[in-house]
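Escalated from tier 1: S-adenosylmethionine holo job.
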Amino acid sequence: MLIDSYDRVVDYLRVSVTERCNFRCTYCMPEKPFSWVPKENLLTFEELFEFMKVAIDEGVKKIRITGGEPLLREDLDKFIKMIYDYKPSIDLAMTTNAFLLKGAAQRLKDAGLKRINVSIDTLIPAVAKQIAGKDVLKNVLAGVDEALKVGLKVKVNMVPMKTINADEIVSVLEYCKEKDMSIRFIEYMENTHASKEITGLKSKELLSILHEKYHFSDDGFDGSSPSHYYTMDDGYRFGIIEPYADDFCKQCNRIRLTAEGKLIPCLYFDEAMSIAESIKRGDIKGAALVLKEVVRTKPEKNRWGGEDSEVSSRAFYETGG
Ligand code: SAM
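Tier 2 regenerated the structure:
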C-alpha cells in the first residue's frame, strides 16, 4: 500500500497519455501556436504499462487516462486492454473532450474502460466554437450519446465563466439530468496559459444561480473526491470543485503521471520526479523507488488559496487537469 507522510492512502493514478489536444480551450491553452514535447520524448504505451504494473502492484486501484486529448493517441484501446487484462478489478476511467468518441466508444468499452468524464461547457454551437477554437459541439454530443449507448458511465465537467457560459449552468445541468449523467462544476483555475480575459464563477455565485431554480441539500464531500456534493429534492446529485479551498487535500489520494514520465505528487506544485529512465532501462525496482519517494513527498495541501497563493504556471493540458 502507498501511504504518504500525512497518512493518506494513495491509490489513484491519473495518466496523461499526451499533452496534445484537438481543442484550444481558452481556459486551458495559449492562443498562439506553441511547441509540443517532441514525440520521441513520450513514453510508449508499453513503457507506460510497465509503470502501471508497478503502481498497481504497490496498491493503485483507480487509473484515469487523460491528456491533452487522450483519444488523439493511436491504439488507446489496446493500452486500456493491457491494463484491464493485468487487473480487471481496476477502476479504469478516462477524461475526454468527446470529439472523437463516437467512433471509439465501443472499442474502449470492449477493452475494459468503465467510465468517462466529458467536458461540456456549453450547449450552444457558437459558444463551443468560441471556447474550443473550432466547431466542436455536434461531434461532442454525438460522442456522449454513443458512450451512453455502449454502456459507459458518463460524468460531465463544466467550467462556468462569466459572460461566456454562466447563463447555461441550468441548461447544461438539465441536459445531464435528462441523460442520467452526473455533473461537476469546476471553478476556473487561473493559470499562465489561459486567456487573460476569463473570470470564473465562484462556487457561491454558482449556488445562488442554482438556488433560484432548485431546492437542494448540502452533502459535503464523499470519499476521496475533491467535489463538494449537493442533492436536489428529486434525488439528482451534482458536484462543485473549488480548487481555491484546500479542504479536500486531507482526503487526496491521487498522483499524476505525464506522457513524458514525470510523476507529480500535487497538481499545485511544480515538483515532479521522472520514472522514464528507470522504465526505459527495465529497472522496475528503480521505478518503484521513485513512486514511493513521490508519495512520501506529497505535500500536505495545495496553495491555491491563502497568502502564498499565486497563479499556477502548470499547464493542465500537460497534467490532465
Ligand atoms: N481533453 C480532455 C478534456 O477536455 O476533458 C482531458 C484534459 S482536460 C485538461 C481535463 C479537465 O481539466 C477538463 O474537464 C477541463 O475542463 C479541466 N480544465 C482545464 N483547464 C482548466 C482550468 N483552467 N480551470 C478549471 N478546469 C480546467
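The chain is about 30% helix and 20% strand.
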